[in-house]
Structure formats: C-alpha cells, structure tokens
Amino acid sequence: MLNTNPNQVALRGPALTFKDNPFLVGDDAAMHYEPDALVLVQDGTVREFGDYTALRDTISPETPVTHYPDSLILPGFIDAHVHYPQLQVMGSFGTRLIDWLNTYTFVAEQQFSDEAYAEKVAEIFLHETLRSGTTTAAVYCTVHPQSVNGFFRAAEKTGQRMIAGKVLMDRHAPEALTDTAQSAYDDSKALINDWHNRGRLMYAITPRFAPTSTPEQLEAAATLWREHPDTYMQTHTSETVEEVAWVKKIFPQHRNYVDVYAQYGLTGPRAIFGHAIHLSDAEWQQLADSDSSIIHCPTSNTFLGSGFFDAVRATGAGSAQGPVRTGLATDVGGGTSLSMLKTMGEAYKVGQFAGHALSAPKAFWMATAGSARALHLDDRIGTIRVGAEADLLVLNLRSTPLIDFRMQYCNSLAEALFIQMTLADERATRAVYIGGQLKYHDARQSAAHTR
Ligand code: GUN
Ligand code: ZN
C-alpha cells in the first residue's frame, strides 16, 4: 500500500524497554515489557508506545504496519566507548595494554592522517555497528583532525547519533601521532565549531589517557571543555595495574590516577571514563561525587588481561560511594566484537569473576538506558518512550539453528534475554531503525505488513 504519510512509521511486535534502573529497583520493577506493542513514530520520534490493540486507532489509515511477531523490539544499543580506527587491529595476538598500544595500535592509527582512508574505515565501522543493532556510540578517532572529519561525514550519512573526538597525545607516542598542547586546543576547538550539535553529532574532547598527555595538554583540554561545557570529555582510567603504576611515577604529586584528572579539571558531568577497574575507595568516591561516568568494556578487559570491572559496586545503591553513571561498551579494537550482545555475554563472565552474576535485564539495561544515562542522553535515547528519538532494534530471538533449539526450552523473558546475550551476536539483528527510518535489515528475513 502507498503510504501518503511518509513521516509516520508503525511497528508491531513484542517490545522491551526500561522504566527504571534494575540495579536500584530490581529487575521486574525496572522492565516495561509489552507482549504485543505498537511503536508509532512520527517525524523521527516516538509518538505512541503501548498495547497494540489499545492504540491501533492512533495510526494514520494510510500508514502500513510492519509486524515482527516472533522478535523483540528494543531501544537501539549504545556503545559508550569504541575506537573506530582500531577495526584493523582487532584480534592482535599476545600483548597486554601498553605493549598492545605500541605494537599494533599506534602503528595502525598513523594511517588516519589520510582523510579519504579515514572516511572509508568510518563507513565500514558504522555499517558494522548498524549490523550489530548499535544506534549510538562514543567514538575515539586518532590524533589527526582528518580522522574526525572523515568519521563525522560518514556518520552524517547514516543518521546515527554519534559522539566523537580527536585524540590528544603530546608525549609517550610515536612522533607521527603526537600533537602539542596548543595544536590540540586549536584543532579540537575548530572541530567543535564544525561538528558539535550538527544534526545528531556531538563532540568529545579526547585526551587519550593521562600518560600520553603533558600537564600542559591536560590543562588545555580542561580550558577548552570549560569554554564548551556541553561537549564531552572522554578518556581512559585505571584499566591495568601497569598503567596505574606508570601514572603514579609520572604524576607523583597526585594522590591517585583519578585525582590527576580531577586536579586538571577533567572530572564532572559529561566526563566519560573508560574501564575504571583498579580503583581505590577514594577514586570511587571522587567519581561518584563529581558525577563522572564510567564505562565497562568487558571483551577488551578479558582480551588484554586487564582485570574485572565491578558493575554491582558501580551501579548499586548499596555501594559506599553511591551509584556512578555506568555504561557498557565494546572498546574495539582492544575489544573483540562490535556486538553489544556478545559484550553483554562477556560482562556476565566478568561479573562471575568479580563475584556477582549479572542478570540479563541488568545487562540489557546497561547496553541501552544505562549507557544513555552515562552519556547524559537519557532524555532522548536508550528507551522506547513517547517523545524519545526512534532509534530501534528488532532482535530475532531465533537467529541460529542452535538458538532456535535452545529457545524451545525457554520459560521466561529473562531467560530469553540471557540466551540471547550468551549465544547470539549480530546475526540476531533483524532490523534497525534510525529516527524511525529503516537503515538495516536482515536480508534472510522479510517483515510482514499487516495492512
Ligand atoms: N588506553 C589508552 N589508549 C587506549 C586504547 O586505545 N585502548 C584501550 N583499551 N586502552 C587504552
Ligand atoms: Zn579504549
């Protein structure tokens, strides 16, 4: 049927979103499950969400309804920490963080001085995120402004909401990958003017981590952030014990690693810290008190042998320091997959080592609403809710023969979710909608139109 109201899109099927934080209120109280939902999108945002039968009259008569009866409609996944230029070093053998950076990463990143190359890799990255059901990411580019221009140009085409920034490094890196305090400031400022809040794109001031910036550069980053307080500041902290020892050596006057960032004015709302594994009580407290965000990157942490993040301490109300905004991320190329499902499965395994079993609703919350909250975007994305941006993932719950078989023995929604995060990957992505527009669909499965 010809749709004469092309700005309206109607999806029908089982849907899951979160109305609260399961770490604080419990899984059942946090979930909002609709066994037969209507998600009605008008001009890119959700206009109606709820029981299909109750809401069907709100659909324009000429709008076709796309029906996904045996799937699950979810908010798109949010990968809150990932390096697009590292796609080409995923799965590099045999090293821990610092050697991995020097041996593989700092070599690959040098290619991103070439803007055409950067844009090509960005296109591959963005397509792969779509295939994985990821609709927003917080992305590290390289030290080259070209790597940011190439990335944002590619992201403008897919329409995904993307946060990204030029990496700042003025020491402890190859010459070809270093800037200076001044050029870092000048180049980042120009990129903010060109890209921040252009459409759905947002800028993150991105000092790589304390060891690769001089105090002057950290100060320059903080000055720029103060001048543009609605941008983000993203960096790494306390990922490995060797790195913590290194920071202690080169910043001897500071109490601890987080204190280095705090003293230079790089903590606070919209400060996004990747990893945060080897934290002292004082650092937990500093992160909580400053309302900074931390991002769990489990496949990276197991691959590089970095350690086990304590998600319950981070997000739980019972923790001494109180809850910290916590997101979930792939951290490719330290991470081994762009699939947030695989990332959730790894988060479960890390949780087992850290002494707690991460429930499926908590993992799905972290990958959607939790990451949105960590990125201060929970008013726009991360949930299915009237007024939210319509970035939606339709998950095929029987994406492989083995999962199909396993699902025959599944007795609850929580179990179905746990099976997905343990066994499934990007093959489970049936469709992805960005602002209500279909941007990816699994060619093996066509959707039914009910009228
Ligand atoms: N710490 C500083 N840079 C990086 C990076 O590129 N990846 C990871 N995993 N950790 C880092
Ligand atoms: Zn990283």
Short descriptors:
17 helices, alpha/beta, binds guanine, nine-stranded parallel sheet, five-stranded mixed sheet, 37% helix, 451 residues, binds zinc ion, Urease, subunit C, domain 1, single chain, 23% strand, globular, TIM Barrel
| Mean pLDDT figure | 97
The backbone outline, from C-alpha atoms, is globular
Structural class: alpha/beta
Task: Quickly give the CATH architecture of the largest domain.
Answer: Alpha-Beta Barrel
Q: How many separate helices?
A: 17
Rg calc? 21 Å
Strand composition percent: 15-25%
CATH topology of the largest domain: TIM Barrel
Give the helix proportion (percent range): 25-40%
Number of domains: 2
Return the CATH class of the largest domain. Alpha Beta
Distance between the termini: 8 Å
Largest sheet: 9 strands, parallel
Q: Which residue ranges are poorly predicted, with pLDDT under 50 across at least 5 consecutive positions?
A: none
Number of strands: 18
Characterization of the model:
This protein has 451 residues and is an alpha/beta fold. It folds into two domains: 8-75 and 385-450, Urease, subunit C, domain 1 (Roll); 77-374, TIM Barrel. The protein is built from 17 helices and 18 strands. It has helices at residues 22-25, 27-30, 52-55, 97-108, 115-131, 145-158, 181-195, 215-227, 241-250, 257-263, 281-289, 298-303, 311-315, 340-354, 360-374, 401-407, 413-423; strands at 8-18, 31-42, 45-51, 65-67, 71-75, 77-83, 134-140, 161-165, 167-168, 201-207, 232-237, 271-275, 293-296, 325-328, 392-396, 429-434, 437-441, 448-449. The strands form three sheets. Strands 6, 7, 8, 9, 10, 11, 12, 13 and 14 form a nine-stranded parallel β-sheet that branches. A five-stranded mixed β-sheet has the order 3-2-1-4-18. Strands 5-15-16-17 form a four-stranded antiparallel β-sheet, with no helix packed on it. Helix 5 crosses helix 6 (145-158), helix 14 (340-354) packs across helix 15 and helix 14 (340-354) packs across helix 17. The model has no long low-confidence stretch (mean pLDDT 97). Bound molecules: guanine and zinc ion (ZN). Guanine is lined by residues 83, 97, 101, 105, 208-209, 236, 239, 300, 331, 334.
